[in-house]
Specification:
Elements (H helix, E strand, L loop, with lengths): L8 E4 L2 E4 L5 H21 L2 H5 L7
Length: 58
Amino acid sequence: MAELKVSLYIIKDKKTYSIESVHPDDIKIMSGRLGKVMSNYYTQHPHELLRIGCEFNK
């Protein structure tokens, strides 16, 4: 099986940073925002949970 390497970068204040060098406080903020966006999306599109292997209760 082939190995897949992924590199994550963010842009802040018009500068690009590797995710490994991002301050923990910024990681917390990004994680909170991502959690809210994903929650809103899957609340509006519960059928999409099945595509990623999750079950939901109606």
